[in-house]
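Hi U.,

Before I forget, here's the chain from the pilot set. I'm dumping it here mostly so it's searchable later in email.
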Amino acid sequence: AQVVESGGGLVQTGGSLRLSCTASGLTFNQYTMAWFRQGPGKEREFVASHVHKDGSTYYADSVKGRFTISRDIAKNTVYLQMNNLRLEDTAVYYCKAISDYDTCWGQGTQVTVSS
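Structure:
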């Protein structure tokens, strides 16, 4: 199983980015998909998740109203739309696939927000 993130980059404050995470080697609709991030000198933290069983979504308080997680089953891909980006959103963003039996992390994609 493998998940690969893409879409990171450099953006100014207030800007937007869309991250993608494409899964392979697993049954995509049997996995909850989540995004985490790790900022400079910080612990890795939860950002958002999309539950496969009922489509529920969850967000960290710090990103509510600005970030949206969505899933395209046909493409085995989960997205993270990030709007109104702030300096404190600068981090490596990681995708995680979670099932009842295993988990799989991606390698991460860098998001840098500049003033």
